[in-house]
Amino acid sequence: MTIHYLDVGQGDSIFIDYGNYEVLIDAGTAGYGAKVVNYIRPYVDGDLELVICTHIHADHIGGIPAVLAAFNVEMVIDSGEVGTTATWRNYMAAVDKEGCTFLVDKDMQIDIGENAWLNIYDIVDGDSDTNNNSVVAELDYSGFSALFTGDLDSKYESIVAERVGKRVDVFKAGHHGSNTANSQALLNIIKPSLVIISYGEGNMYGHPHQEPLIRFKSIGALVLGTAISGDITVTTSGQGYNITTSNASRDTPVSPSANIIPVTTPTQVSPSVVDSNTAGTIYIGNSNTKKFHTSTCSYVKSISPENKVIFTSRAEAIAQGYVPCKVCKP
């Protein structure tokens, strides 16, 4: 299974490919419609089985008409909200023309192949803030899971945490890394080892915001952003995962800093590929002692933030000259 987090600027677009079953979640603005179509075309086997439109904002549904024109889409699921914008009218006209099955989100489980399910959670409907009506989806594949919350705000994330009720491997950061989402209440439950933020470089909103970046760091998650890494692909066989990016030469984790610019040195982290043998595992290094630990080691709490280094594999830590802790024995 591959999950593609497309770089569509200040927008969202995620594509899931599992054998002959494909799912597209959002397609960025109208200007990115052609890119989404061209990107997913090599992966679509016959029909595009499912398109999820999380909510009616242009940076999520703007590119959907191009997708519907290019592929035979079997089913569309959206939030059920009625809009007034030209973008929404174009989107609905394209859905009507497609003549596919159209569903308003409700609690459901969709079988997408062997040992793979897409859980749809109807968190809230009819909120005055369109973001909060976002369709929430959780992918479960064997021992692997990924969570997609659209632009849902933090005031409803405790409901998501309760519904999911477990750790997930990969979390697509809510609302482009905004401080209105990505609450500690949610992160304490889902505890992702990888967070992917979809945002545009130099965007007018200042995404991603400092507060969620600090929270992501506090749980030891590796954080990648499409504005830096480009298209990000997570590949999994159900146990662990590998990461590849289209801008590997620019890869650096998104970290808290005064001006939102990542501040890590190349010698600290190499995030473009996660070791398949220990994929999903985060190791914490101490640049002062040159030792590395498991993320749950008691010594991690005593490492000062400026000395803390995150490694995505044991081999990476050793290659950087770090030695394993004799207590946790990573």
Report what the structure shows.
The structure is a single chain. With 330 residues, the protein is of the alpha/beta class. It has two domains: 2-271, Metallo-beta-lactamase, Chain A (4-Layer Sandwich); 281-330, DNA Methylphosphotriester Repair Domain. The protein is built from nine helices and 19 strands. Strands 6-5-4-3-2-1-14-15 form an eight-stranded mixed beta sheet, covered by helices on one side. It has a seven-stranded mixed beta sheet with strand order 7-8-9-10-11-12-13. Strands 18-16-17-19 form a four-stranded mixed beta sheet. Strand 10, helix 5 and strand 11 form a beta-alpha-beta unit. Helix 1 packs across helix 3 (64-70). The longest helix has 13 residues, at 86-98. It starts with a strand and ends in a 6-residue tail after the last strand.
CATH architecture of the largest domain: 4-Layer Sandwich
Helix content: 10-25%
CATH fold-level name of the largest domain: Metallo-beta-lactamase, Chain A
Please state how the strands of the largest beta sheet are arranged side by side.
6-5-4-3-2-1-14-15
- Radius of gyration over C-alpha positions, nearest whole angstrom: 20 Å
Count of domain modules: 2
- Report the biggest beta sheet as strand number plus sense, adding barrel if it closes: 8 strands, mixed
Q: Quick one: how many beta strands?
A: 19
- H/E series: EEEHEHHEHEEEEEHEHEHEHEEEEEHE
